[in-house]
Amino acid sequence: MTRAWGAAALGVCCWCLIVMAMGLSNAHSVWEWLWTLLFGAVVPVALLRLASGVLTTYQRSSSDVAEELRVLRALSAGELTAATVAVRTSLPLEDVAARLEEMAARGYLDVRLTADGVERYALAGELQVGAAPERDLRWGV
């Protein structure tokens, strides 16, 4: 994340230097100075807002990662319900249910619906401990 902020700050500094150098050499009236200042102020603010939006989109806290690892460890035992995962991880049921749905949407988990309507979660096939990699027999791989 720091590298992205550094790149954004460097871009803003370069932009300000270029605009001010052009403004000093080309602006002959007050209106030209106003346009230079407006253009030189709007673009850096827009770049910083863009960088802020990108960084907050991809930023994950260490507690989120730790919770996800705890859920994955619990699911390594096999197919479990959200309540069972919550008990095994000591996390609130609402947090576990939301985390399981998110992980299933990303393809990390398989969701199975039992006959009585209970959702059971399991690690996706390629993530299961000791699972053999799938082979495509058509190609001999």
CATH class of the largest domain: Mainly Alpha
Number of domains: 2
Q: CATH superfamily of the largest domain, please?
A: Winged helix-like DNA-binding domain superfamily/Winged helix DNA-binding domain
Report the sheet with the most strands, covering strand number, pairing sense and barrel closure. Answer: 2 strands, antiparallel
Q: From the alpha carbons, calculate the radius of gyration and give it in angstroms.
A: 26 Å
Distance between the ends? 39 Å
In round numbers, the mean pLDDT is 76
Describe this protein's structure.
- There is one protein chain.
- This protein is mainly alpha-helical and 141 residues long.
- It is built from 5 helices and 2 strands; from the N terminus they run αααααββ.
- A two-stranded antiparallel ribbon has the order 1-2.
- It is rod-shaped.
Topology:
Layout: H1 2-26, H2 30-58, H3 62-75, H4 82-89, H5 93-105, E1 109-113, E2 119-123
Antiparallel strand pairs: 1-2
Helix pairs in contact: 1-2, 3-4, 4-5
Question: Descriptors for this entry?
Answer:
141 residues, mainly alpha, Arc Repressor Mutant, subunit A, 2 domains, two-stranded antiparallel sheet, 2 strands, 7% strand, disordered C terminus
Question: Could you give a quick summary of the protein structure above?
Answer:
The protein contains five helices and two strands.
